[in-house]
Amino acid sequence: xxxxxxxxxxxxxxxxxxxxxxxxxxxxxxxxxxxxxxxxxxxxxxxxxxxxxxxxxxxxxxxxxxxxxxxxxxxxxxxxxxxxxxxxxxxxxxxxxxxxxxxxxxxxxxxx
Length: 112
Description:
With 112 residues, the chain is of the alpha+beta class. The chain has helices at residues 43-52, 59-63, 79-106, and strands at 17-26, 29-39, 67-71.
């Protein structure tokens, strides 16, 4: 039986975090590319998080559950900095972050 390198084996447990680039809409300019680190959630945890949105005190609090960090921003990541991003870029930023997160977790990537 051939030996398999551990890196070649499929893991039933995905990494705890993953990175993805989100296009954040900006008024009067092209969207900004924001590289976020997201926390992975199981199907059950994802459904619970989605349902918790109506009970969250703020969008920043709600997104803080899935966003673990960022790269390429002039301010370090913190709950306060995430709140400032949302305050300055409004609902379109929130929607862009959620859309990217959901697409990364649930959409199948296909090669051509």
